[in-house]
Design goal:
- The protein is an alpha+beta fold.
- It has a single domain (2-221), classed as Peptide Methionine Sulfoxide Reductase, Chain A.
- 35% of the residues lie in helices and 17% in strands.
- Strands 7-6-1-3-2-8 form a six-stranded mixed β-sheet. A two-stranded antiparallel ribbon has the order 4-5.
- Strand 4 (136-137) and strand 5 form a beta hairpin.
- The radius of gyration is 16 Å and the shape is globular.
- It has helices spanning 2-16, 29-32, 62-70, 92-95, 117-128, 154-169, 197-200, 205-221; strands at 53-59, 75-83, 103-110, 136-137, 140-141, 147-151, 180-183, 187-189.
Length: 231
């Protein structure tokens, strides 16, 4: 079993690293944006007391998205997983076929007294991924790499849709945002070897080429939100 898991881990790294030599390094929202990305006009105020809420987003290979949110102040945890499909197909090998309805996703647990849902979405659109790429993020192609926001309630839906309309209306990006806004039915945690992959494999070529620039962009663009992640 250990050998099998090790092989799957190597396979996952290989699949995520395909086409590196022909792609643009570290492509994210910054590469697609032509003006500064402003915060959402519609958002909830910070809560008066500490608690825990969750959001689920998809923005390509989940290694980088998880790393970004693990480095945001006010985030309690960030977990890689799958959303959009069924329990029966919620495993990496099957999701990688692109025929399950799942997207590689990240569940973010956050304290609404320290950071708002809208602020987390600003990070999503600013540094976590490129929201103008359809069914693709950089070298990773397929519906499992689509841009999506899986809302938990009507307030999250309202904030997400209003923000996309705001950004499109301001023509922040060179192309139209293709991010799906869809209800969350169920989130399935990914295999253990995917969790905190960015932090446990800091020299892996895909991580260095694609994901480290995202975390660096977070540090530069959001210095008040950035925190060093400690495993």
């Amino acid at each position: 079993m250990a050998k099998s898991l090790a092989f799957i881990g190597v396979l996952a790294a290989f699949v995520c690293a395909l086409a590196l030599t022909s792609a643009v390094p570290g492509r994210s929202a910054a590469a697609a944006a032509k003006t500064a990305i402003r915060g959402p006009g519609v958002d909830q105020p910070l809560a008066a007391t500490s608690s825990s809420e969750t959001m689920v987003v998809a923005g390509g290979c989940f290694w980088g998205v998880q790393a970004v949110y693990s480095s945001v102040r006010g985030v309690i945890s960030a977990t890689s997983g799958y959303a959009g499909g069924s329990k029966q197909t919620a495993d990496y090998e099957t999701v990688s076929t692109g025929r399950t309805g799942h997207a590689e996703s990240v569940r973010v647990a956050f304290d609404p007294s320290r950071i708002s849902y809208g602020q987390l979405l600003k990070v999503f659109f600013s540094v976590a991924h490129d929201p103008t790429q359809l069914n693709q993020q950089g070298p990773d192609v397929g519906t499992q790499y689509r841009s999506a926001i899986f809302f938990a309630d009507t307030m999250q839906q309202k904030i997400a849709k209003a923000y996309i309309d705001q950004l499109n209306g301001a023509k922040v990006f060179r192309s139209k945002i293709v991010t799906e806004v869809t209800p969350l039915t169920k989130f399935y945690e990914a295999e253990g070897y995917h969790q905190n992959y960015f932090f446990t494999h800091p020299t892996q070529p895909y991580i260095v080429f694609w994901d480290k620039p995202k975390v660096e962009a977070l540090k530069q663009q959001f210095p008040d939100l950035f925190v060093e992640h400690h495993r």
